[in-house]
């Protein structure tokens, strides 16, 4: 899985266009959100997503590997536990969000080590 990051300026208009372009290319969004002037979406094929956006004139999109791990949403404090484990291990977290299947998505500087810490 990949985190697709796209700079945006006007949330509704930009996301409408991004959604239309990716939908027309057959690329589904499996989770994500918008914060700090960027949209982050979980996609299966980041390269294809970036290509589709570029072909439509949407510049600045980037794709990075994403670590997707189960989230025990019914356990109070689970998010804090996960983030503490990453922090203690010295792993930089660039983004985190949830997908549509009750999993946590992390964009980190060391996905393999982060996976070992969180499993």
Provide a descriptive summary of the structure in words:
There is one protein chain. The protein is an alpha+beta fold and 119 residues long. It contains four helices and seven strands. The strands form two sheets. It has a four-stranded antiparallel sheet, with helices on one face. Strands 5-7-6 form a three-stranded antiparallel sheet, with helices on one face. The longest helix has 14 residues, at 11-24. The model has no long low-confidence stretch (mean pLDDT 96).
Question: How would you describe this structure in keywords?
Answer:
single chain; 119 residues; alpha+beta; 4-stranded antiparallel β-sheet; 3-stranded antiparallel β-sheet; 7 strands; 36% helix; elongated
Task: Please write out the topology.
Layout: E1 2-7, H1 11-24, E2 32-35, E3 38-43, H2 46-55, E4 62-65, E5 67-70, H3 78-88, E6 93-98, E7 103-108, H4 111-118
Antiparallel strand pairs: 1-3, 1-4, 2-3, 5-7, 6-7
Outline of the structure:
This protein has 119 residues and is an alpha+beta fold. Helix content is 36%, strand content 30%. The chain has four helices and seven strands, in the order E-H-E-E-H-E-E-H-E-E-H.
């Amino acid at each position: 899985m990949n985190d697709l990051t796209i700079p945006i300026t006007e949330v509704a208009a930009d996301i409408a266009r991004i959604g239309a372009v990716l939908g027309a290319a057959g690329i589904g969004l499996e989770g994500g959100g918008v914060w700090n002037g960027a949209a982050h979406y979980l996609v299966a094929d980041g390269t294809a997503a970036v290509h589709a956006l570029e072909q439509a004139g949407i510049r600045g999109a980037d794709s990075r590997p994403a670590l997707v791990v189960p989230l025990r949403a019914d356990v109070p404090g689970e998010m804090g536990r996960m983030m503490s484990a990453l922090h203690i291990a010295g792993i930089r977290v660039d983004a985190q969000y949830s997908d549509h299947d009750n999993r946590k998505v992390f964009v980190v500087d060391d996905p393999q080590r982060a996976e070992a810490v969180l499993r």
